[in-house]
């Protein structure tokens, strides 16, 4: 069976299975747990269209998670079918940011590529944050000024309450003298942000909004 699960779908399924696991741990009412199983099964299957019988069977197993051991084994099996983020070389990344001199490129361990909906990293020395993702199937890079905040807020990318900073991207306007700046709060920790993403829509909307 080929890989067919997006990273955001993988995290969504994990979240639903954890919710079900918490239900098993907090109630002994069989009718309640059965209802939770049905809801979990419905939600995870709604993520996909045209699943093969083997694919549907794999996804539906999320509703069979009863304890931590079940969860660990299931997530390990599920991850084998996650489509990883396209592996980029340092040269690939440099190409996406042609105007940036002395670009500091992050090192990403092999096991993390299946956890990524986007590549993001901070360059504290330049007060910048960099983001690479796909929008409408095309690889794109975005960078801007980044100022960390001292308190938590809602991230525009993952929509979770996390430690964030103000990300501001600046572009040239219709003439060379005009500049346009757009900003929003996003997670300081891009790895944690990726773990929170359960839908690509906010991520792609953020990129399009920043670059519009």
TrEMBL record:
Transmembrane spans: none
Keyword line: Elongation factor, Protein biosynthesis
Name recorded for this polypeptide: Elongation factor G-binding protein
Alphabetized GO MF terms: translation elongation factor activity
Domain Elongation factor G-binding protein N-terminal residues, every copy: 4-86
Protein's UniProt keywords contain Metal-binding: no
Keyword Protein biosynthesis: yes
Elongation factor G-binding protein C-terminal treble-clef zinc-finger domain ranges (all copies): 100-203
InterPro entries: EF-G-binding_C (IPR032330), EF-G-binding_N (IPR010841), EF-G_N_sf (IPR038344)
Organism placement in taxonomy: Bacteria, Bacillati, Bacillota, Bacilli, Bacillales
Database matches in CDD domains: FusC_FusB
